[in-house]
Design goal:
- The chain is 71% helix and 0% strand.
- The protein is mainly alpha-helical.
- It is elongated, with a radius of gyration of 10 Å.
- The model has no long low-confidence stretch (mean pLDDT 72).
- This is Lysozyme.
């Protein structure tokens, strides 16, 4: 969980953004 590359972090942030959009 701690070993996440910048690409992974960007992917997670984008996923969180989708979740926030889906569940405002």
């Amino acid at each position: 969980m701690m070993r996440i590359s910048e690409k992974g972090i960007t992917l997670i942030k984008e996923f969180e953004g989708c979740s926030l959009t889906a569940y405002p």
